[in-house]
Design brief:
Length: 247
């Protein structure tokens, strides 16, 4: 029996990377997926691929750092499907830099996307999940939310915060309302995230990580495993990383 089939699932950051791979994988397994990202053209491509493969997908261009846009995404979901079963907070940004270089603008971008984006998504779905008496919130964290590496300072701080958010959600929402709050923490994955890094002083760190990176599909399958649980089972926190990655 699949607990993915027929679920209505919002996936943020769904135009690329973890979000894209996760949305495609879940749709193949019978979920109706609602795709969100700032890249509207990318969302259209992903949605059309899912639809062409027989899946159900709609999309809405959404900046998750703007709470009004996240609530509008929720409205679109309810108008189309009448409910939301799962929120997967995939939207995120990883900009490594050394403290010496004080990349304050980049710190603020990560705080806005990794933290505010996660919080706004939670705020949008919680009232509806409380009424339903069940639901899933899956936050995509990082291995950097468990151990801090060179050049990871602010990024790790945002992911440690996501870990705290998830644990707090579990304590407040699971027993009282039956809402499952989980975190999936990937290690280094083979996407183009390194291309966004502007700090030349961390290039050596990035080169070492690229050598052991794993395909994003492994993370998508791990997230699907968390989704594919009955309402009385909670997967708390899963780390999925390359075998050869050093913490």
């Amino acid at each position: 029996m699949s607990y993915i089939t027929d679920k209505v699932i919002i996936v943020t950051g769904a135009s690329s990377g973890i979000g894209k791979a996760t949305a495609i994988h879940l749709a193949k397994n019978g979920a109706s997926v609602v795709l969100a990202s700032i890249d509207g053209d990318g969302l259209k491509i992903v949605a059309e691929r899912i639809q062409n493969e027989g899946g159900i997908a709609i999309y809405k261009k959404t900046d998750v750092t703007v709470k009004e846009e996240v609530h509008a995404l929720m409205d679109v979901t309810l108008n189309k499907f009448g409910r939301v079963d799962t929120l997967i907070n995939c939207a995120g940004m990883m900009l490594f830099s050394m403290w010496d270089n004080a990349k304050v603008d980049e710190w603020e971008k990560m705080i806005d996307l990794n933290l505010k984006g996660t919080l706004y998504g939670i705020a949008a779905v919680l009232p509806h999940m409380k009424k339903q008496g069940k639901g899933q919130i899956i936050n995509v964290g990082s291995i950097a939310g468990h151990a801090v590496g060179e050049g990871h300072g602010v990024y790790s701080s945002t992911k440690y915060a996501v870990k705290a958010i998830t644990e707090s959600l579990r304590k407040e929402m699971s027993v009282k309302y039956g809402i499952q709050a989980s975190m999936v923490s990937p290690g280094v994955i083979a996407t183009n995230w390194q291309d966004s890094v502007t700090d030349e002083d961390v290039k050596g760190v990035l080169d070492n990580l690229k050598e052991v990176a794993i395909d994003v599909e492994h993370v998508a399958r791990t997230i699907a495993f968390v989704v594919d649980q009955p309402s009385d089972v909670l997967i708390n926190d899963v780390i999925v990383s390359p075998t050869r990655q050093e913490w």
